[in-house]
Amino acid sequence: MYSDYAFSLEQLWKIAGGQLVLLLAALLIICADLFLMQKSDDTKKASVIGWLTVAVIMAALLHVINREWQLTEVVFMGVFSMEKYSAFIVITILMAGILATLFGIGYIRNNKVCRSEYFILLLFALYGAIAMVQSVDLLMMFIALEIMSVAVYVLAAFLKKDRRSQEAAIKYFLLGCFGSAFFLFGTALLYGLTGTVNLSFIAKVLSVGMFERPEVLVALAMIMAGLFFKMAIVPFHMWTPDVYEGSPAVVTGFMATVIKAGAFGAFLKIITVTFSPALAYSGQPVFHSVLNLASLGVYWKAVIAASALLTMFIGNLVAVSQKNVKRMLAYSSIAHAGYMLLGILAANDEGRMGVLYYLFSYTLMNLGAFGVLYLIDGTERNAQTLEDYQGLGYKYPVHSFLMALFLISMAGLPPTAGFISKFYVFLSVIKEGYFVLAALGILTSAIGSYYYLRVIYMLYMKEPVREIECGRMTLSSAVALIFAAIGVLYLGILPEWLAQVAQAAQSTLAFVF
Amino acid sequence: MDMSVTINHYVVLSSILFGLGIIGFVTRRNAIILFMSVELMLNSVNLMLVAFSRYRADMAGQAMVLFIYAVAAAEVAVGLAILISLFKHVRTVDINSFSLLSDN
Asked: Which residue of chain B is at minimal alpha-carbon distance from A319?
């Protein structure tokens, strides 16, 4: 069937144009960097490259929205597919990329690190994340995962003089490689069992009576473990708090959103296309006769339910005891992954829609929060503890207001995007009959709001302990923060539009097969 | 008794190697040895892919091995660079001493 996809440049541009733009631009910017940055330690030139990067990602984003989103069917090009589902996550990832680049321009100025590698590595990481979501082939998925990860390992080590940054990078590197080895082992097993690594061909072979063989379950478990490492799901989350705390704040925001979006996108695709009962009633007539993978759900749903519950509880409970706001946000992002997992567990239309909606709004609020965090910080690790946040509300009203807004959204309080996202995922699991799980999830969300609101309490109701000098709000950061803040409020007050878009996106997933 | 080597032998062997990699990664404390354990895990997968490729008379498996080599090489290049840059700060490769970041 591979021969159906004869190579054509036009076809490649049609479905993977966004990737091509990023890849070529990254290579060109390396050359531009060589000439521009020759002997300068001047932050101006770094920010020129930063704005260039913004323009490039914007071009890729426009291409995806104008061309790839408009595709009316699933289009394949060997290992990649493009349909609305992939397009939605690609748009989310590119949006995160633009925000992270804008924050990066300001961060480089505030911290006096005159390195434009940040932007180049960011482009490669974005490329990897997008390729991962678009691929319909486990090997390509692995390679894309590694392209993304290797770029982010270097980004984590970005502050060369800071021991914490190096420590975070080595921890992330070791556990990241360990995790992807599991993914690869699962891939190899599936290749041996089915003779292919293409997601839908695997499903076809498995459906002919071999889907309950223990080897298949081992392979599925291995692939899940590998992706759970990247998604920071308990019990594969040990690296997350250390890495998020040690990495530069802008990189942490990038990691917490782009890698999660990429890994969640790939995971949902694998589960739905290869291992899911959902295909059996997707509406395409072929599935009824050929496929019945429903009984596999018994195995992976139990695992996902347990991990989601653990993730929500551990993420939220440990966050309560954190003194460092950055580390607290790391635990909170673990908890958010747990909520998103609920949508995958439900495995119905609402659940998948909820995951997409959650990913989009999580990207806005999490990057927004890290964007304010680096501004309050001034230079890295200048003011990160709860004590430092005391009484900032009056001295820095804009920083504090934005921080409060993003934290309220993360706590899941109306009228913000966080509330609506949690609402959708909980609704989807209740519809599938997981009442206890939903109740416990809402309980953890209540625990969560304690530590989010505590930061706001510190900002506005306490007297300052020491003099804090916040970083300067640069134009780029201001643009990004305003965009994120408006997005968070808009999605909280008028969710229908994005919900419809997400609904349309998830409905195409069934046709990737 | 038939003593020929079957596909099962290869799968068992590579699973054992993969398991040794995991054990090494979990028990050893030297960052370089952790690297080597991860490499062992990747290479056990390579062995399995080549065996499956031969078993199914499909060259795709062997092509995958080449990709995995490239990925492993990139990983090591970046990993060693990060380790050296951390070594300049801490003067050791014992992962127990990388404890500036931890819950306490």
From this structure: B103
